[in-house]
Amino acid sequence: MSKQDEALELAQDFEREGFGAPDLYERFWRLRGDEAACFTLADSLLRGRRESGALLDDAMSYVSKEDFRALVSTAMEILREECEAKNEAQRDKKQANKNSARQTNAQGVIAVASLEFAPLLHPFLKEIFSLRPNDGTYYECYPWRELDYESSQIWRERLASAQTSTEDKRRIFECLLQTRQPQNVKFACEIAAAEKFLKYKGSFSEHLGYYLEDVGFTLERIKFTGDANGAEPADENLSQTQGVLNDVKFNANNLNSQADENLNDPKSGKNAPREENRVQKAQTSDEMSIGGEAFRLKRYCGECAYHIAFRQGYFSEPFAPHQAKNHPTWGLWTDEAQKGESKEAAEANLSETRYKIGGVLDEPCADEENPLFHLITLDPVPRELPVRSLPSLILAAHVREISEGETAFYEHDRLGKPKRIGERSQIEYVDDEPARQDLVRLRVAPKRWRKQDWALSNGRQNLSRIGGEPSWIQSAQVPTCPICGEKMEFLMQLD
Q: 28: Cβ–Cβ under 8 A, 6 or more apart, which residues?
């Protein structure tokens, strides 16, 4: 029997028996590595009459980009059909408000595509906005990710239009933020500040900051210095802070920024689309005025991300077959090239550099109940990270204290060794153990896995990463540096 025939048989068994089908995941793992078979399974599950959940998500992880294009097309077709069926059943409100299994599966395809292959969704954005797959979820606006400035023109115009309803303005605001295109983000913020269609209490700039942190940006107040000739913006060179700080919260390490990132798009002044009124006045500058205060839009994370590749056997065996660490983001220790990675990334990934992880570090006045867990030693520090003038960097944290809800800050000396800032708290109930000491590799994440979501990955993916955009467990919460008072830059997360 061919792998595609096995995939069809598996889909048929699942349609009859659901997750109670015999040896479900053992049979699925045998298809791993065969893109055609995985597409056959995913396509069959998508078209089926049973909610496929995690099995469909797992199958999609092994589908090629071109086959994923076909899944997206099928998902959109199902969403249209289900929308028409709901309209016909509108008299029965209870039935009309209930999603069918086919609709749920189609929505799952849209959600996964928005993370792995967002441009495949861009031809359907008008329909997606109308059909509202994943309505009410935090990832409803994810399909707008990677939409460029020119292609976003229609959405900027709709946001600025007096004919657009308040509810639609709120959604379009979030859609433009999801593009992560600095000019789109700035424009959306300025319209929101002018029209006040967002619901908030207290400071608008703080409320806006919550939205921005979810998409990798922060607002930085512009400080002014004045003389007899007038006021000029101060040069906020954070490199005056000699120590480098790291903070661990929600499974993430963050590092103090020592240099501002220029968000200006060098192409923005060329062939820019002509727009009317406020749309026409969109600026390339990253500065904006909110409530009479001047702010600068700033990225707190970079584009380049590395997966921490663990040696085979580092983790204990899972309790169930579906929890096996078989996702493509886990199998990175070997010297094989990864699908989707560039030639430069492949060359970097084949380096012999190994990094130490795990164990406990010595520190002055060490506390047995609250030891300093060693996370990783970056030696050398990857050049893409926001770390300046340090030959190596040791990241560590009082994990037990952090697990009880505290935020811990650390200062690093010139050798990259950490020192706690502030007093330690007394541990009451957490008894976490340090990770086992070992060596790991850093592998440049292929574009497909550069943006990962903690909830949507559902425990399948490797979310232990260096650099890139963090995968927040709840909402984003970028800490403020206790030395310079500015928002910190993201460096690392362990899951």
A: 10, 41, 55, 58, 59
pTM score:
0.84
**Tens digits of residue pLDDT in 415-444:** 999 999 988 888 888 888 999 999 999 999
Q: Where are the alpha helices (DSSP H) in 241-302?
A: 277-280
User: From the DSSP assignment, how many helices (H) and strands (E) are in the chain?
Assistant: 16, 17
For residues 481 and 479, give the distance between their C-alpha atoms in angstroms, rounded to a whole number: 7
Distance CA 161, CA 57 (A): 38
Handedness of CA 388, 390, 393, 398 (dihedral sign): negative
* Per-residue tokens: 410: 């650390």
Give the model confidence (pLDDT) of 329-387 as tens digits: 997 665 554 555 555 555 555 567 899 999 999 998 888 889 999 999 999 999 889 89
Cα–Cα distance, 11 to 45 (Å, whole number): 6
Q: Angle CA(143)–CA(67)–CA(111) in degrees, nearest 5?
A: 25
Residue 408: φ, ψ to 5°: -115, 135
So where are the chain's domains?
3-126, 305-493
Could you tell me which of 278, 273, 209, 223 has the C-alpha nearest to residue 476? 209
Q: DSSP readout, 301-329?
A: S-S-EEEEEPPTTSSPPPSSGGGSS-STT
CA atoms of 262 and 167, how far apart (whole Å): 33
Spell 396-433 as b/e; 16+ CB within 10 A means b: bbbbbbbebeeebbbbbeeebbbebeeebeebeeeeee
